[in-house]
Amino acid sequence: MTHFTSIRAILALLLREMASSEGRLRGGYLWVIFEPIAAVLLLSLAFSAAFHRPPLGQDFALFYATGYLPFALYSDVAQKIGVALRFSRPLLAYPAVSWMDALLARLFLASVTQTIIITLVLGSLTLWSRDMIAIDPIRLATGFGLALLMGASTGVLNAYLFGAFPIWERLWSIANRPLFLVSAVVFLPETLPHPYDHWLGFNPLVHAVSEVRAGLYPAYEATWTEPGSMALAALVPLAIGLALLLRHAHEILHEA
After folding, report:
1. What is the pLDDT, as a whole number, of residue 115?
2. What is the rounded (10 degree) CA torsion for 212, 218, 221, 225?
3. Spatial separation of the C-alpha atoms in residues 86 and 136, rounded to whole Å
4. Which domain holds residue 203?
C-alpha cells in the first residue's frame, strides 16, 4: 500500500508539473523542443561564420548538438530537482506526499522530456548529416547517462542548499554559467594545450560530452575518458544531499 501511495503521489506531482510549468506557455512542450534546436542552430551559424569546418567532422550542427544536448540534459535535470521542494511545497503538506516523491517526479519528467529532445534532434541530424556516422549505443548511453547522473546529483544537493541557504540559489546561478564554456560543448578537449587539457579532465561533463561524440563519430575514439570514475565521483554530492535532506527536509518545508 505504501508503494502504491507513493506512485499516486508521484503521478499527481507529475501532472501538476506539466500543467504549471511548460503547460502555461502557448504551444506547451513544442516550445520546450524548439528551444534546444534553436540553440544548436545559433551555435552552428555563429561558428560557421568564423571557421571553415567544425573541430570534428564537416557538419557544424551535429558537432554542436553532441556537445549542447548532454549539457542541456545535466542543466535541466539539476535545475528542476534543485527547486523541487519549493515548487511542490503545497502538495508536500499532505502526509501521503514526501519530499522524495517531489524529487523523483521532477527527475522523471525532466529525463523523459530531454530524452524526447535528444532523440528528435540527434535522429534528424544524423539522417541529414554529411559526416560518416557509426552509432555506438553503449557510448551514447554512457555519455548521456553520466550527464543525467551529474544533473540528478547536483540537483539533490542543491535541493537542500537552496532551502537551507536561500542566497546559495543566486550564487549557484552565477557560478554555474561558466560551466558551459569549460564542458567541451564548443571544442575538443584534445585541442587544448597542457596543462589545461589535464585540468579539464576533472569536469565530469567533459567526459560525458566526449563519450557522446565517440558514440557517433567513428574517427573520434576519446580513449582518455573515464566515465566509471566520474560516475563514482558524481555519487558523492548525491549521497551528501540525500543525507542532509533526510535530516533537514522537514525543517526546510516548514520554515515560514
Report:
1. 93
2. 10
3. 39
4. 2-253
**CA–CA gap between residue 198 and residue 206 (Å, rounded):** 11
HSE-up (13 A, CA, CB side) for residue 95: 1
pLDDT band for position 19 (cuts 50, 70, 90): low
Residue 24 has pLDDT above 60, yes or no: no
Q: What is the CA radius of gyration of the chain?
A: 19
Q: How far is CA 193 from CA 42, 179, 186, 233, in A?
A: 27, 19, 16, 25
pLDDT, mean of residues 192-215? 93
Residue 10 falls in which region: left (phi positive, over 0), alpha (psi -120 to 50) or beta: alpha
The number of folded domains in the chain is: 1
Tell me the average pLDDT across 210-221. 94
